Amino acid sequence: MTSTLSHHDHVFKKFLGDIAVARDFLEIHLPPHLRKRCDFGTLAMASGSFIEDDLKGQCSDMLYSMKTTTGYDGYVYCLIEHQSRPEKMMAFRLLRYAVAAMQRHLEQGNDQLPVVIPLLFYHGTTSPYPYSTKWLDCFAEPELAATVYHQAFPLVDITTIADDEILTHRRVALLELVQKHIRTRDMLELVNELAYLLEQWAVPKEQFRGLMYYILERGNTSNAEQFLQGIATRTTDYREDVMTIAEQLEAKGEQRGIQLGEQRGIEKGIVLGRQEGRQEGRQEGRQEGRQEGEHSASLKIARQLIANGVDRAIVKMSTGLSDDELASLFDDSH
What is the reported pLDDT for 329? Predict the structure, then answer.
């Protein structure tokens, strides 16, 4: 089978890799309503393959780029089926390839999707091709699928829904209200609404704790202690959890305080160390300066004594110079 497939693949690409042949192929086989939108004068090969490794033995992909008659960039995507038995889900597979081509178009720096026309070239033994090439027919309920994929996808934009309406959303209202305002309002202002929802729709303790930590750690809560106290006094089933959370937050605060204190201590130690180092440096500099000045004065006095004929032993005693230094001075005087 591999040898047969490779022969099919070779001859297909040999012909369809010729732009003149590809242009004739597309002008003949594209549906009229699509053909009239294609500017075949701009037809060119597009490099790259979108076929997954596990499918490469079954089909050969050829991708062409061209502009539409309105001037926009578009793609025509051609596939050849090598199996002797038709693929029932081929329409869905073609859709996957089309989406992959769109993705690569975006990755090349474009900010709009191109129209990709999947086209199946079939030469199997079963004739005619027995399956639909309409991808919605791959669903068990094509009519239902059409109502989903032929119109805008549902959008829940919580930022545009009024709080009063959110409060009617039963068990999901708590999540929606918090996430609507988590960045924009002081959560302390919502204590009454949150407590009301907690009383109306009991949530598991794990969800409650997760929500409280989320509010306190990610929300704009001006006073965490007052917020927790407000929840505890207005609910009956969560007071113990609120107390636990408060204790944990307090312990965490203490730990952060200790860490901050340690960090500040380290920083202070570094500063003090630098100050002490500079002070020691200045002292050492002054000491070295004094020593150099004293030595220079001793040399000057020694030269004067030697010039006046003073005995060497007396010069050494008077100046504290070494024998080598004195020898050098006496040699210079002669």
Answer: 72
Residue ranges in the chain modelled with pLDDT below 50: 1-4, 50-52, 54-59
Of residues 53, 51, 52, the one with CA closest to residue 78: 51
- Token pair of 163, please? 């709080």
Name, in order, each residue with C-beta under 8 angstroms of 193's C-beta and a sequence gap of 6 or more.
163, 167, 177
Residue type, 125: T
User: Where is 183: in which H helix or E strand?
Assistant: none
* Token pair belonging to 203: 């949530």
Greatest alpha-carbon span in the chain:
132
Model pTM? 0.64
Residues 138 and 279: their CA atoms lie apart, in Å, by 83
Sequence-ordered strand ranges (E) for 18-138: 44-45, 59-67, 73-81, 116-122
Q: How far apart are CA 240 and CA 224, in angstroms?
A: 16
pLDDT of residue 307: 76
Q: Calculate the CA 143 to chain-centre distance.
A: 39
Distance CA 328, CA 227 (A): 88
* 117, 34 Cβ separation under 8 angstroms: yes
**Measuring CA to CA, which residue among 9, 6, 48, 44 is closest to residue 26?**
44
Looking at residue 51, its pLDDT comes to 47
pLDDT value, residue 2: 42
